[in-house]
């Protein structure tokens, strides 16, 4: 797949910018299946983004907002700063794994917040049952600059060289493994910089190889739309949609959104395998056979080749979009002739980084 700006332009210039629904209409008795079909069609065949007005009640949002500010204050007191994959460091306040932190901090607020039929309906519409929610709180402070336009997890979290290693069908599969969402915790008029979207851009097959290129970034800058939101509104979108948080041009508004990244239940192996145990068992044999021309295939069978899921408070990438995988570390270990003890220590440190607490 070779990115072509003219082909891209012909796909995205398709008219319909977005679809808006009210939470009460979506959750009306007897309409769930029809509404899920409508949402699925919009995210796949339509513009790729929907807005649900009044998805979360104001008092529920306010209670969650109070918890989130407490979590941010706790991070500051501990000297913890959370980075952003697509924005300048320090521009935002961010809480990684906000879902788990909210649950532990305020269980009642968690239950009230996520016992939400609109959120559940959108998740089931795109992913079916068994989905798993993660959340990352993002606060764009006054003057905070826009994110670079991007696609999102999975392939959107890779650089061009990494994404290009995956076959065409993986590029087509990646968008249906995740649903992106955001809940507005304050009113978000356009001047506060709500998320910028390029409707229909999720339909471009080569998009994971295109979004970092200058001509595609310029097209996004010239043609994106922004959707003003009221407190309690939710937006859900196809993760392959070109998007990015906008610039907060206000002097006072701290634009808080709870970003939802909901995963398909299907991206998992059938059996549980203790990869750390397997790697430690076979490592001496890997050292003995390090000159084998296909040693990399043996490492791929033994080690965890994907760096996610992880704890982004501890396992923040260095000079890359994604952290190092276990398999990549084992490749380094074999090349540098680490001792088994040295590898065991590094594996334990990596496992600790990935634990949520």
Fraction in beta strands: 5-15%
Low-confidence stretches: none
Roughly what percent helix? Answer: 40-55%
Determine the CATH topology of the largest domain: Jelly Rolls
Task: For the record, give the distance between the C-alpha atoms at the N and C termini, rounded to a whole number.
Answer: 41 Å
- CATH structural class of the largest domain: Mainly Beta
* Secondary structure tally: strands: 10
Alpha-beta classification: alpha+beta
Radius of gyration: 21 Å
Give the name of the CATH superfamily of the largest domain.
Answer: q2cbj1_9rhob like domain
Describe the protein.
The protein has 357 residues and is an alpha+beta fold. The protein has 2 domains: 9-263, Sandwich (Jelly Rolls), CATH 2.60.120; 275-354, no CATH class. The chain is 41% helix and 13% strand. It has 15 helices and 10 strands. It has helices at residues 5-12, 23-26, 32-44, 58-77, 98-105, 107-114, 117-127, 160-164, 168-173, 207-210, 214-223, 275-288, 295-302, 326-336, 340-354, and strands at residues 19-22, 49-53, 92-95, 132-140, 178-184, 196-197, 225-226, 234-237, 243-244, 255-263. The strands form 2 sheets. A 7-stranded mixed beta sheet has the order 1-2-8-5-10-4-3. A 3-stranded antiparallel beta sheet has the order 7-6-9, with no helix packed on it. α5 packs across α6 and α12 runs antiparallel to α13 (295-302). The longest helix has 20 residues, at 58-77. It is globular. The protein starts with a helix and ends with a helix.
């Amino acid at each position: 797949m070779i990115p072509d700006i003219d082909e891209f332009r012909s796909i995205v210039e398709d008219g319909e910018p977005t679809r808006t629904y009210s939470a009460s209409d979506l959750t009306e008795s007897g309409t769930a299946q029809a509404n899920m079909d409508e949402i699925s069609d919009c995210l796949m065949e339509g513009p790729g983004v929907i807005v649900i007005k009044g998805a979360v009640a104001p008092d529920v949002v306010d209670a969650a907002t109070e918890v989130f500010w407490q979590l941010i204050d706790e991070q500051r007191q501990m000297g913890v700063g959370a980075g952003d994959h697509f924005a300048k460091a320090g521009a935002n306040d961010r809480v990684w794994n906000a879902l788990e932190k909210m649950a532990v901090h305020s269980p009642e607020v968690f239950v009230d917040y996520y016992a939400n039929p609109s959120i559940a309906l959108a998740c089931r519409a795109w992913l079916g049952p068994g989905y798993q929610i993660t959340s990352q709180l993002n606060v764009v402070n006054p003057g905070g600059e826009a994110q670079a336009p991007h696609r999102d997890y999975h392939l959107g979290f890779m650089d061009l060289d990494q994404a290009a290693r995956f076959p065409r069908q993986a590029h087509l599969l990646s968008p249906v493994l995740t649903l992106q969402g955001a809940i507005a915790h304050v009113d978000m008029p356009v001047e506060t910089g709500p998320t910028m979207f390029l409707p229909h851009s999720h339909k471009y097959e080569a998009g994971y190889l295109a979004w970092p290129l200058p001509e595609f970034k310029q097209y996004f800058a010239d043609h994106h739309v922004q959707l003003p939101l009221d407190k309690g509104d939710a937006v859900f979108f196809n993760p392959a949609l070109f998007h990015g948080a906008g610039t907060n041009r206000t002097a006072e508004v701290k634009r808080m959104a709870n970003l939802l990244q909901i995963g398909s239940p299907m991206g998992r192996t059938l059996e549980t395998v203790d990869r750390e145990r397997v790697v430690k068992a076979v490592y001496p044999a890997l050292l003995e056979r390090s000159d084998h021309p296909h040693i990399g295939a043996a490492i791929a069978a033994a080690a965890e080749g994907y760096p996610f899921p992880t704890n982004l408070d501890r396992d923040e990438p260095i000079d890359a979009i994604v952290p190092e995988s276990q398999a990549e570390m084992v490749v380094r270990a074999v090349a540098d002739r680490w001792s088994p003890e040295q590898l065991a220590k590094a594996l334990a440190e990596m496992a600790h980084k990935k634990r949520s607490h």
